[in-house]
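Lay summary. Proteins are chains of building blocks that fold into shapes, and those shapes determine what they do. In this project we predict the shape from the chain. Here is one chain we studied, written as its sequence of building blocks.
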Amino acid sequence: MTVGIGGWGSRRKPMALVRALLRTAVTDLTVVSCGGPDVGLLAAAGRVRRLVAPFVTLDSVPLEPHFAAARQRGAFAFTELDESMFLWGLTAGAQRLPFLPVRAGLGSDVMTVNPELRTVRSPYGDGEELVAAPALRLDAALVHLNRADARGNAQYLGPDPYFDDLFCEAADTAFVSCERILPTAELLREQGPQTLLVSRSFVTGVVEAPGGAHFTSCAPDYGRDEEFQRAYVTAARGGAQWRTFHDRFLAGDESAYRAAVAGLGTRRSEG
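And here is the predicted shape, written in a compact code that computers can read:
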């Protein structure tokens, strides 16, 4: 199964949905993501067969520790794309095109480490050579937004939409978690219509999950829980420490996770 995960690094990741995925037996995943702790948790659990990503970071921690460890032991295949290739690959997937031409990557090692990438030449007078960014088609997409209605129209209130709309449009099935479900008429009370990022036409299911992006940020509702993220990174460095962290925060359901986080006493920074 190919699953696309929205958000960006350690920002507005659908962590409640990722934790729900970890509670299933689903494995052998191809993960498409602007990676953060979503990739890290799936890698730590051995669920990833292949990763397609432009980066995997925790933002304030440059390299996601579980991703780094998994790559060092060769745990899964990695297709590393330029961010522009990633964007246009998702766009091609959303539009059901086989590829879209981009300039990004030409003359760089992206072409060397991904020998399957091909170039095309413009059929017009310029004859320019371009990279054919392959479509990123998904079996399923997981995204987290600030607000949504019960039908799946979803709204972001932060500074960046990321690629969440494209993830949903490029997928056969898409699931949205959100901080609050509102009546449709109330979605525009906080922001204008341009913030209605995801259309219900591309959504299979929606669930209200307050704090569903924790420990990543979900501006302006809350910022990244840096203290929790530091605890996550520290635990990721050692086997016994990680088992303790896992048993405390990841062994139960979402209610147990929230209770364990509350018990840790960390505070979300301001969004």
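What the prediction tells us: The two ends are 34 Å apart (CA to CA).
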